Amino acid sequence: MSDKDNNTPSSENNAAPATPTAPGGGRVLPASVTEVMQSAYIDYSMSVIVSRALPDARDGLKPVARRILYGMNEMGLRHNQAFKKCARIVGDVMGKYHPHGNLSVYDALARLAQHWALRYPLVDPQGNFGSIDGDSPAAERYTEARLTSLAEAMLENLDEDTVDFVKNYDETEIEPSVLPAAIPNLLMNGAMGIAVGMTTNIPPHNLGELTKAINALIDNPNISLDAIIKHIPGPDFPTGGAILGHDGIDKYLRTGRGSLKVRGIAGIEEMKGGKEQIVITEIPYNVNRATLVTQIADLVHDKKLEGISDIRDESDEQTRIVIELKRGEIPKVVLNNLYKQTQLESNFSVILLALVNRRPKEMNVKELLEVYLEHRRDVVKRRTAFRKKKAEDRAHILEGYRIALANLDDFVKIIRASQNREEARERLLKKYPLSEKQVDAILDLRLYQLTGMEREKIEEEYKQLQKLITELKEILNSEKKLLQVIKTELGEVAERFASPRKTQLLSDVGEMRMEDLIANEGCLVTVTHTGFIKRTPFSAYRSQKRGGKGVIGTGTADSGENEDFVEQLFDASTHDTIMFFMNNGRVYVEKVYDIPEGSRTAKGRSIANLLELKGEEKPAAMLCIKDFSADRFIVLATKNGVVKKTNLSEYANFRKGGTIGIVVDDGDQVMAAKLTKGNDEIILLTQQGMSIRFSEEDLRDQGRATRGVRGITLKEKNDAVVCMEIVDRETTILVAGRDGYGKRTSYDEYRLQGRGGSGIIAIKSDSVAGALSVRETDEIMLITQQGQSVRTAVKEVRVIGRSTSGVRLINLEKGDTLMGLCRVAEPEEKEG
Question: Which of 323, 452, 642, 673 is 20–30 Å from 590 (CA)?
Answer without folding.
Answer: 642
